[in-house]
Amino acid sequence: MPSTTMSDPSASRFAPQNKTTQERLSTTTVGLVALSDFRKRRAEVLEQQGREQDALATGTSTPDRSQTATPDVTSGDSGDGAPPSARAVKKSKKKTAKKLLSFDDDGDDGEGTDSSLDAGGGALSKKKLKANTSVGIVPKSMTKAALVKEATEREALRKEFISIQTAVKQTEIAIPFVFYDGASTPGGMVRMTKGDFIWLFLDKSRRVGAELGVGEQANAVKAWARVGVDDLMLVRRTIIIPHHYDFYYFLMNKCRGPGGELIFPYSANAPEVAVQQQKEESADVLSTAASRAAAAKPVTPVELLEGADGDATETKVVDRRWYEKNKHIYPASTWQEFDAEKDYKSEVRKDAGGNTFFFSK
What we know:
XAP5; single chain; 13 helices; FAM50A/XAP5_C; FAM50A/XAP5 C-terminal domain-containing protein; alpha/beta; elongated
């Protein structure tokens, strides 16, 4: 009868091995193995641990196939008796497109790992990419001929606009005015163009003042000879117009003063004949001075120009020195310098005492 102190070989062979999953994998997996084989061995170890736990619960023991090299029962057909873990191993094998080497012991069994590995092997190109709906409609690329055509049309429009603009600026107008120093002295009319600056109008009015002898008759010529353009002001109704503006600016922008009236009520359009003539000059049709002189139109009398029938008292030429002395007295106290950003139409004018001004117009 054998001694009880002798170890039972079957007990040591079939006794559960109290090893962790990592230790069993290290024992059964040596060197570089394919990812599918690694997953298969891992599934076997997990399955064996589950069986051992069940055996401990029922009082029986299950041999460790990873230690005894027992044939794998999961390699056969997946019948009804096959455990769920074995079927999961088979399903994982089918999903693997090809064998890849791995150094990751904690690899994920999910599809995310397969996708990252397959991307290195070129399998990502087989997937269908969804359209990015956040991207707007991309405009069609234009051909070279279309770009040239568009540039040509743009240049033609630019030249046409410049021709019309030049024709408007060259259109003559008449500006009736008065000299004002508390009382109005008629100054007659001055021939201007819509593109002239305010300082040029004041220079012409200064010459008119010298010719008419406005002021003291004995020293009128000498007095006006000493007056410069900076010493004069143009007051249009109650708006002081700065010297650096041209008449074209007020016409094109339709600038309005108090009461909503246009500051300069001249047309912003040019005669059709003037526009056509300007286009011809731009095209160098009239290339010589002789042809330009032959095509020049006769001088129109100033009485027939646009604006000749205007009210002369609405355009005042004022000596700046007189204004500085009397700007606190009516009507100079109601004058204000033109501000392009200001809305004069809806403005309510008040004096220094807070009293509202009432205008007849």
